[in-house]
Design a protein that fits this description.
Collagenase (Catalytic Domain), alpha/beta, Serine Threonine Protein Phosphatase 5, Tetratricopeptide repeat, two-stranded parallel ribbon, 17 helices, single chain, binds zinc ion
């Protein structure tokens, strides 16, 4: 058995460096300038892009000290290496406006307004362009018409996405779709995905053919003999063995995939059992969900079910409901350039699938139908946003039971 075959691949992630807003001392400022200049002098563009955070940190420190012109110079230079940092694009737009360069400022704000995936960035860019942005959801009463669908936001969700789904689902199904916001009391998170990943790495390390190699690697990494009890240490040892295997075979792909998976997993936060989220939402809606109607809960929390590492959504016609998570569709998690249209499509396909389950529409086996089961985000992206004929018919039957 190859070590690299023990793990499936995952998406890519770039760690977004956070910008500090404290006033730096002279010595700190000098250190930050040196770090920023070092990146700017780097002739390796890939490495410079990876380390561009140092340029933005210095620009931020300069701005805090009131050196806005110098801050702008560094921001613009940093964005040459990292143009997809929309937060920095907006900071740059703000400083450009302050410097009287209104056209360039608006151009940047428009870019953010077009591409951003979060309410926070959309609100800021809208404000900069003098455009309205609705950042909150209004609870709407259940309509008399049946069937109707309610969208139920769970936790911190992006309002623009819920509103976009609402209008898309209204046009698709031609039934009323309203927003309901009952108090959903979520249970504590069920598991830590970093621990789940470490457990998957532990399995092969315990096997006889890797055990002594793993022990040697742990010693070389100066880890305690009890390293197997520590998740971070297990990941380090696994990576070390994978690295040696990659070097021997001159194939860096497995190592690259592993590094990506670790990075994405660390960004996920905790995971909730999808069935429990569904059950709690049903409980919160109990007494107000008329027969024939259904709900779709939307969350950013990561979810899993049964033996799966994660799920995009689950639904149950007996509960007249479904729940979907869009966290794994976001550019921030995957390290992709932000693309609101792409996020919107990914979420819409999942919504069609989940709403189908809530209304009792059977599973679909057509690979490009929006409701086909995807084994990965790649498969999800490969699907169209249209329903296959069978799903169309099943929806018609489910939503017009008298026909
Ligand atoms: Zn289908």
């Amino acid at each position: 058995m190859r070590l690299s075959s023990s793990l499936a691949s995952a998406g890519v992630l770039i760690i977004l460096l956070t910008v500090s807003s404290f006033a730096a001392s002279d010595a700190q400022l000098k250190q930050m300038k040196d770090a920023a200049d070092k990146v700017l002098a780097d002739t390796d563009n890939v490495r410079a892009s990876k380390n561009a955070g140092a340029i933005f940190d210095y620009a931020s420190a300069l701005e805090v000290l009131g050196h806005t012109n110098a801050a702008l110079v560094y921001l613009e230079r940093g964005l040459v290496y990292s143009p997809w940092r929309l937060e920095e694009q907006l900071n740059c737009a703000r400083l450009l406006r302050g410097a009287g360069r209104h056209q360039s400022a608006d151009e940047k704000a428009r870019l953010v307004l077009q591409r951003a995936e979060t309410d926070a960035l959309l609100a800021r860019s809208s404000e900069m362009l003098g455009q309205p942005f609705v950042g909150s959801l209004k609870t709407e009463p259940w309509p008399d018409a049946r069937p109707s669908l309610a969208l139920v936001p769970i936790g911190d969700v992006d309002v623009w996405l819920v509103r976009t789904l609402q209008s898309n689902l209204i046009s698709s199904f031609r039934i009323p779709v309203v927003i309901r916001q009952p108090t959903v009391r979520l249970p504590a998170a069920n598991r830590d995905p970093v621990k789940v990943l470490a457990d998957r790495c532990r399995e092969p390390l315990k096997k006889s053919q890797f055990k002594s190699k793993a022990g040697d690697a742990a010693r070389r990494l100066s880890l305690a003999p009890s390293y197997m009890e520590d998740d971070a240490a297990v990941l380090k040892v696994f990576r070390q063995l994978l690295r040696e295997e990659s070097e021997n075979k001159k194939d860096p792909e497995a190592l690259r995939q592993f590094d990506e998976e670790v990075q994405v997993t660390r960004k996920l936060g905790k995971q909730w059992k999808a069935d429990e989220v569904l059950a709690e939402t049903s409980r919160a809606l109990s007494g107000e969900l008329p027969a024939g109607n259904a709900y779709l809960a939307i969350t950013r929390l990561d979810m899993f079910a049964g033996e799966s590492r994660y799920v995009f959504g689950v639904g149950d016609s007996r509960a007249q409901g479904a729940v979907m998570s869009y966290l794994r569709f976001t550019a921030a998690l995957l390290g992709q350039p932000p693309d609101r249209e792409r996020l919107s499509k990914r979420a819409y396909k999942q919504a069609l699938s989940s709403v189908g389950f809530a209304f009792g529409v059977p599973r679909c086996s057509h690979p490009v139908c929006a409701r086909a089961y995807p084994n990965s985000l790649e498969e999800h992206d490969a699907k169209g946003i249209e329903l296959c004929e069978l799903c169309e018919q099943s929806f018609k039957k489910a939503l017009n039971p008298k026909q």
